[in-house]
Amino acid sequence: MGGADFLQLSPATAPARGLTGWLADAIRAAIIDGRLQAGAPLPATRLLAGDLGVSRGVIVEAYQRLADEGLVSARPGAGTRVLGISRQAPAPWPAPGHRPAQVRAEPTGPPAERAHPALLPQPWRARAEIDLSPGVPDLSGFPRAAWLRAEKLVLEQASVADLGYGDPRGSRWLRTELAGWLARTRGLRADSDDIIIVTGVAQALALLARVLRDLGEIGVEDPGSRGSRDELAYWGLRPVPVPVDEHGLQVDALGDLRAVLLTPAHQFPTGVVLAPRRRRDLLDWATATGALIVEDDYDAEYRYDRAPVPALQASAPGLVAYAGSTSKTLAPGMRLGWLIPPGRLHTDLVEAKHASDLGSPALPQLVLARLIASGELEQHIRLVRKRQRNRRDALLRALREHLPAARVQGIAAGLHLLITFPGRAGPDTDLAEAILQAGVLVHPLSWHRQRPGVPGIVLGYAAHPPDQLHEATRRIAQVLRG
Ligand SMILES: Cc1ncc(COP(=O)(O)O)c(C=O)c1O
Questions:
Q1: CB atoms within 10 A of CB 479
Q2: Which of 150, 293, 305, 387 has the fewest CB atoms below 10 angstroms from its CB?
Q3: For the segment 375-386, what is each residue's pLDDT rounded down to a tens digit?
């Protein structure tokens, strides 16, 4: 195969910016729609670069992205080949004869306290001089001026109908803007009619739990988000722990589950990016069994070393219910998010959304649509990403200085990192309590676990300037030295 003909690309259609994404999108589409079959070689990078009139680095980076997604193999010197993706229709939903499993061994652990970290008794939080709870962005950086300007324009221009009970899926304008935004930033394949505006990933999970309740159970990452697990359990789905290792979720442990929730772009709380092989295995598993993958893309905007790996949904929209929100990019208090389910669940989910609240508040949706359309959201995220990267670097410097032997994980993306203490005696809840005595609030890793494992602490760094991160680290080190 030579050149770029098979991709129907030409130098004339190349965008001024984002060449890598443009090329990766075209090749991904060709793989998914079958124009490129398993085993097909991709053109040599030098040849394709010549055909498209772009630098070879663009081609190398695009191939690397597709390898990260598990769509192509990349062995140095052996050329790049397409890997097979399952193209048969997913098995029927739910799988024939499936009965919700009634009996499963109760997971051992976790610590006895029931409260979701967000519901920790206020006095506990008040004892912290420096609150390093993960999952909270820098709220002082909320783009107040841009929001105010956009809201003023929205109020001047909104029609009377915009203020009535609307489509329970949410504002058409926002859904249209989001479809474009998510395609550009996360590779998503959805149009405005596929999207349901919700009040955050939390509501997306609540609606899914309602619609999937006959399954009885759902796999969740272990360790994984305590909040997500509690949300699912509250709405009647039993969260079954599925182990996570250094490659992400252990797909071969999914067994006879018929749904799984995971955070593939940046696993919470370990920070692992789901390995290409695991991505493929997961999609194969879902195709073969008819199971549903619930993709929580909670902080994917913040990848520091390179462009983030596209969403799983980009490879298999029919298998994945994709959920995201503005909680990490703007503020959790906005309660504004989106759910993009496979077609087979769409009607039931819209019905559940309608029954829950008749639709999300109208004005914030219109303001967000305007911020996307004007480019101000993108500008804001770029600014915040830079600030957060600086804060992460400051925390890493402080850790190197005060805790040089610490095992630090999950630094490539997100708003938090994880420190583990293999071999340390005693529960990490005691350690977190001792650190709190020193004025610093961290999450013990076991809060986010269902089964016992290595002790650790999760540190959110987004909300604090470098000097405070340094001070917090100094105090943590002092506690660890005993
Ligand atoms: C992994 C993960 N998923 C989901 C959520 C909830 O997000 P939302 O505010 O969009 O409901 C959080 C909140 O911190 C989280 O950490």
A1: 16
A2: 305
A3: 999 999 999 999
